[in-house]
Design brief:
Rossmann fold; alpha/beta; 6-stranded parallel beta sheet; N-(1-d-carboxylethyl)-l-norvaline Dehydrogenase, domain 2; 3 domains; 18 helices
Length: 434
């Protein structure tokens, strides 16, 4: 099929490359000329394992193209995906739909023949209705169906999530649109992937509900970690003990410094606003948002307390600043709150991240960026692990011991055994464990 992907951000680029790998002809469209030029030259604007090779292969095979010109591509497309950003709106936390509305207006002017318009951007309930109204007002003769097809991609594992998903959610009840969507996702149908066809509004709400629930699991186990510290229990045993219950499941039960990224914070806020507008507040999600905000702030306070209540002129080494491993995404990363608070409290910050330093630099201008973990630990009073990159799981502690005068390790991801680090002479502090 001929697919137009409007937007080459994280979702649009990954989805476009994967659809091309399914055998479709995909053209990714973006108004940013520099981004499109770079993509044509093989330069990927984000770090996602396997994405660069996937894009290169499909460009070479002639199935994937990039352009700034929307009109002709949409006019010849069987399906047009809207994959533009929907950031939180300042002031009220509601999703900013200006890019979605702009895309719908441009698509309306170009669409020709029967075309399925698929909203892949994360949007509030009812956005599909608005997109359809925009297109029909701009082009009353348009033969279109508007579908909701939310994405469930984990940064760092997006390609595998796309090709081997837990499920695909498609919001439409129109037979012609269903037929097109089945063809688009034909490889997954052949693999018997669960495909849920539902109403457009239900599909839109599924996305928000899923992310809010996962954010709730993370927040719950973080609060349990705090309780464990007070009563002498081990949060990792708690996580395993409840995670083995099939009604609960083990995923998203790792205690840490709080959730971040492009989805959970934004989507939880948008769900709260949607529910308030509908007159049915979601008090659980509101509590999750509040708890997670306090969680990030409290992590810096822990470091300060470990330093005797004063970090003035102390050198603190930070390992990992991206919100999770295998991505360079800094959006809502816990490290931002932690580092800024430590700097405001008088600390000198050194940091290292395998991929996110370029993104983090402008956000944290007072940080000294290092070549590797050992360069970061050199001359530090305290070393803090914030992001659990694999390379931080097997550090040469004897080497760190030689270059780091302070012997305090704060592990916000619980990736080491306390007894092992203490046996090496370190003052090791973790989350929810004695």
């Amino acid at each position: 099929m001929r697919i137009a992907m409007v937007g080459t951000g994280y979702v649009g680029l990954v989805s476009g490359a994967c659809f091309a790998d399914f055998g479709h002809h995909v053209t990714c469209i973006d108004s940013n000329n520099d981004k499109i030029t770079n993509l044509k030259n093989g330069k990927i604007p984000i770090f996602e394992p396997g994405l660069e090779q996937l894009v290169r292969n499909n460009v070479k095979e002639g199935r994937l193209e990039f352009t700034t010109e929307l009109f002709d591509v949409v006019a010849n497309a069987d399906a047009v995906f809207i994959a533009v950003g929907t950031p939180s709106r300042r002031g009220d936390g509601f999703a900013d739909l200006s890019f979605v509305r702009q895309a719908a207006t441009e698509i309306a002017k170009a669409v020709s023949g029967f075309t399925v318009i698929i909203n892949k951007s994360t949007v509030p309930v009812g956005t599909g209705d608005e997109v359809e109204e925009i297109i029909r007002q701009c082009n009353p003769q348009a033969d279109i169906e508007v579908v909701s097809n939310p994405e469930f991609l984990r940064e760092g594992a997006a390609i595998d999530d796309f090709k081997r998903p837990d499920r695909v959610v498609i919001g439409t009840v129109e037979p012609k649109a269903i037929a097109v969507m089945k063809e688009i996702y034909r490889p997954l149908f052949l693999n018997e992937t669960p495909i849920l066809f539902t109403s457009r509004r239900s599909a839109e709400l599924i996305k928000y509900a899923a992310n809010a629930f996962l954010a709730t699991k993370i927040t719950f186990i973080n609060e349990m970690a705090d309780l464990c510290e007070k009563v002498g229990a081990d949060v990792q045993a708690i996580s395993r003990g409840i995670g083995l219950d099939k009604r609960i499941g083990s995923k998203f039960l790792n205690a840490g410094p709080g959730y971040g990224g492009s989805c959970f914070p934004k989507d939880a806020l948008a769900l709260v606003r949607t529910a308030k507008d509908a007159g049915t507040p979601v008090s659980v999600v509101e509590a999750v948002i509040k708890s997670n905000k306090l969680r990030k702030q409290s992590m810096a306070d822990r470091v300060i307390a470990i330093c005797g209540g004063d970090v003035t002129n102390k050198t603190i080494a930070i390992l990992g600043v991206s919100f999770k491993p295998n991505t360079d995404d800094m959006r809502e990363a816990p490290s931002l709150d932690i580092i800024r608070t430590l700097i405001e409290s008088g600390a000198n910050i050194k940091a290292y991240d395998p991929e996110a330093m370029q993104e983090a630099g402008p956000l944290l201008p007072k940080v000294v960026w290092c070549e590797d973990a050992y360069d970061c630990a050199k001359d530090a009073d305290v070393l803090v692990i914030i992001t659990e990159w694999d390379q931080f799981r097997a550090l040469q502690w004897s080497k760190i011991n030689k270059v780091m005068p302070g012997k305090t390790i704060v592990d916000f991801r619980n990736i080491y055994n306390p007894e092992d680090l203490r046996a090496l002479g370190f003052n090791y502090v973790s989350i929810g464990r004695s």
